[in-house]
Specification:
Layout lengths: L2 H6 L2 H13 L20 H28 L6 H29 L6 H33 L4 H4 L11
Helix pairs in contact: 3-4, 4-5
Length: 164
């Protein structure tokens, strides 16, 4: 690479290249192995505990909700079927996506292959699209346990029978 090639690289990419070279001054580093981010060296156990709690509590809570709906055969109601569907999606996301997100947070280099390089961001964006539905899920979950609060949660929303 000669000097004219360096002038063709945009400054923002040169800055990133210089930063990466300064972060790994040892040329014997094997980038096929995971490299922990230097800024997280002392505090990564905190992240492991927090993400571990999220995975366990999210999975247990959603499985409990799914089990409740299945045992009482509430899945025949469209609202409960919808809540159960969201619960299944949340279990899958908490079991698959949260550990991957933790690894991406802690590891400086990408070790997961080209497929996950494109697939993980798509999964993470699904979580953003689902957020407006989570409020509905919380309201409907409340209605499963306290049906007498139905008029308070849905004030102003048209019901299926036309009564508002």
């Amino acid at each position: 690479m000669d000097n004219s090639d360096l002038h063709q690289i945009p400054d923002k990419f040169l800055g990133q290249i210089i930063h990466n070279l300064q972060s790994f001054p040892n040329e014997t580093v094997n980038f096929a192995d995971p490299q922990l981010r230097k800024s997280l060296t002392n505090i990564y156990p905190v992240f492991l505990v927090m993400y571990g709690l999220l995975v366990v509590l999210g999975t247990v809570g959603n499985v409990a909700m799914i089990t409740y709906i299945l045992r009482r055969r509430l899945y025949r109601d469209p609202t409960c079927a919808f809540i159960m569907n969201i619960g299944v999606c949340n279990v899958i996301m908490s079991v698959l996506l949260l550990p991957l997100s933790l690894a991406i947070l802690l590891i400086q280099n990408w070790i997961f292959g080209s497929f996950l390089c494109y697939f993980v961001p798509m999964l993470q964006n699904l979580r953003q699209d689902e957020k407006p539905l989570s409020e509905l899920q919380l309201q409907d979950n409340l209605l499963l346990h306290r049906p007498h609060l139905a008029h308070k949660c849905y004030e102003g929303y048209p019901r299926e029978d036309g009564i508002t």
